Amino acid sequence: MVVETDLVVVGAGPAGTSAALAAANAGLGVILIDEAREAGGQVYRAPARTLKASTKTRDRDAVVGVRLRAALDRSSVRFERGLRVWSIGERFRTDTAGPEGVRTFKAPRLIAAGGAFERTVPFPGWTLPGVMGLAAATILLKSEAMLPGRRVVIAGCGPLLAAVAAKVSGGGGDVAAVIDMASRRQWASVMLQLATRFNLLREGAGWVLGLARRRVPIHFASTIRRIDEADGLLSVEIGPVDGKGRARPGRSSLINDVDAVAVGHGLVPGVEITRLAGAAHTYDRLRGGWVPVLDAMGRTTIEGLYAAGDGCGIRGALSAATAGTLAGLAAAGDAGALDPDTLASKSEPQLKEAARLDRFSAAVSDLLALRPGQVADIAPDTVVCRCEDVRRADIDAAIADGAADVNQLKHFTRCGMGPCQGRMCGDVVGELVALHAGSREAAGAWTPRPPLRPVPLADLIGSYSYNDMPIPKPVPL
Amino acid sequence: MTTTFDLIVVGGGINGASVALFCARAGMRVALIERDQICRGASGVNAGTLTLQMTRVALIPYALEAHAMWANAPEWLGHDVGVVVCDGLSLAFTEGEEELLTYRAARRREAGAPIEIITGTEAQGIEPGLGASVRVAGWCPIDGFANAYLTGLAYRRALVEAGVALLERTIARGVDETEPFVVNTDRGPIRGRRLVIAGGVWIEPMLAWLGVTLPIKVLINQLSVTERVAPVMRTQVGIASGLLSLKQYPHGTVVIGGGWQGWGNRETGRSGIVPDSIIDNVRLACHAIPALAEARLARSWTGFEAETADVLPAVGPVPGIPEAYVCGSIHSGYTSAPYIAKLLAQCILGQEPERLLFPIDRLILQPASAATVS
């Protein structure tokens, strides 16, 4: 059975939830779908149900999340929780699967708000047990109130480093070190640009002062060179890097007796829906990679398809909410639920806010962007595609064998064919191919295909009788 | 390019690449024009099934020869395409399917395919992964599958070694002259004394360059693959109607096909899946191999297949245009292509082909009737 409505919103993070609320307030029938049970996305992630009563930490994000979910509960938005969208078709037929079987929704308009995923630029040891993403560590901390380890190294780049370090440390874990690819000078320049964002600065300063109080060593302009494992413990070798992410000659040092490493090198927009729908995209290194071409309101080049949030360029949660509201308003306006004047007057303050926030997100975007030198430095023996065990040397050999873009490379090597569907390695592989192809545009991007996430066949087939199946007429003899 | 090649092949799928390869090895100077990359269309995205139980009766002798070629690919192609030779089973779950299967197996056996009808219990002895409800099965020891996505890598290496001028990412837009042939491309004209049209579903618009009207029906076949799972099957499995193909690759993924139709457009090249049809295909697969239900679907995709009016190949000279040939629309084409392309290469090289080609005179519409069809 197909459930029809005015607007389908995929993703219930800050962008999707704000979009759904704005469109519903304007009078549209809205179905909001998320694979999680609760709205909030990654930043405003709800604690697991069993933890709710005992959760004492009430940081700013947690409070915003509670408010967001309350607003959603009060609204007319129909929130379809725990459903995995696996296919988006013509006129935004949206096919989902869950433990209760398949369900299909359809609307003349769809807002894609699927968020981002974390980038890890491979180094020897990145696939060892105990090594995880900064985002994964955040999920453990927020959703399960669980430490990633007892003695943890936190590494990579961006503001999440200090946030995770502060949470691990505040939760009773020992932060062995923070390894930041950015230099002190790069941070100073960011701070200057954020000078008017007092709240953000105060929060950041709080994290850093907390780490200083606990005498956590912070290594700037440094990166993990390799991680080795012995007797269940990790030893982390670190060394200096330049502004492009290239290893600088210099003394490396070892951090021993570590049981977890949280490492992340920025975020990559999740553009699966907009690409599957055939919208135009462009490569934007500072926004995290391939992003859909959008107008100021979030309209893609496909009529009726909108996008908002980190899934169309990394700008952070605050920008995501504003962009979501704008996309929701645009959908309502385009559907005729808001007249042009009302649409303009409701959009104006949001557009101003979006422009203001953009300046701040631009300040940190360089910290989070892929550093080309870091990719060029990946050693031949290092596994790049961890699902299929494809090493840097295999990729270079395939390129020498004639693989001219990422899809041909995929056929030659199985790189990107595993269960992560190329999400984990795609950005780095694009950069490796670009070293030979000349540009990211020439290297291309994986061909988008359903399912948008791997789906258990059991969820797809439900219960059925063989005799009722519509089997087409036999092929000719 | 001022060179005049001995042969220009338009279309770098398995048909065109095979013709180019055999002619180059026989000493011809060959240019292969492909608008994308070698074997990245239907030849690279099909299910890789090498079965006789879906092959048309008229093609069985060809498919038997081709199967032997695939099984020895490293010997004649020089490179591996991951071929696995294994038992093949075609299943019947209902009385109607049993009747269909028995009749079809007998006809294919007459044509030379060693297919035997066995009981459901015997079938389970050969394929322990089968569900309980199999009535009878067609069993053929000559079956198997290739890793279709490796076709491009293997053929590309072979073509380069044979000295074929590979013009990948080159779009052929028409034929300006025929004596010699001048193929108009986005990278300039390509001259050659002979021409082979091997453009898959696009052989219809390509033959129109030569003023020949040969209608091609476009099939949009859907395929799905699971993530890697522990072994759930060891044979190539189909059903009586031909609407299922199922096999597990050595690395653990299971490819589910059978020609269920998606949506697509030959002119734009865009295509996609139809979710309900994917679900039915997957249901059929899980009905055959129940343990599959525990796997996750990793990817579904589509490919274009060409079909002529009589569902038999269009392979032979183009009537009225000396030294122009066509090679395409071979039903279950991946299985039979290397052999049928070899026959066409023999014809082009002035030899007597080992077996008959499939001349296209029978398929060509004359101008008057062409007008009513278009």
Give me a quick take on this structure.
The complex is a heterodimer of chains A (477) and B (374). Chain A is an alpha/beta fold and 477 residues long. Chain A is 36% helix and 22% strand.
Give an overview of the whole structure.
The complex is a heterodimer of chains A (477) and B (374). The radius of gyration of chain A is 23 Å and the shape is globular. The longest helix of chain A has 29 residues, at 340-368. Chain A has helices at 14-25, 60-74, 134-144, 160-170, 184-193, 198-213, 272-276, 317-334, 340-368, 372-376, 392-400, 406-413, 426-437, 440-443, 457-461; strands at residues 2-4, 7-10, 30-34, 78-81, 84-88, 93-98, 101-106, 109-112, 116-118, 131-132, 151-156, 174-180, 218-219, 222-230, 233-240, 253-258, 260-264, 267-269, 281-284, 289-292, 305-307, 383-385, 390-391, 455-456. Helices cover 36% and strands 22% of the residues of chain A. Chain B folds into two domains: 4-44 and 149-214 and 310-372, FAD/NAD(P)-binding domain, CATH 3.50.50.60; 88-141 and 217-307, D-Amino Acid Oxidase, Chain A, domain 2. Chain B is built from eleven helices and 20 strands. In chain B, strand 16 and strand 17 (271-272) form a beta hairpin. In chain B, helix 1 (14-25) runs parallel beside helix 7, helix 1 runs parallel beside helix 10 (333-348) and helix 3 (60-71) packs across helix 10. Chain B starts with a strand and ends with a helix. The model of chain B is unreliable at 370-374 (pLDDT under 50). The chains are: A alpha/beta (477), B alpha/beta (374). At the A-B interface, helix 12, strand 24 and helix 15 of A face helix 5, helix 7, helix 9 and strand 18 of B.
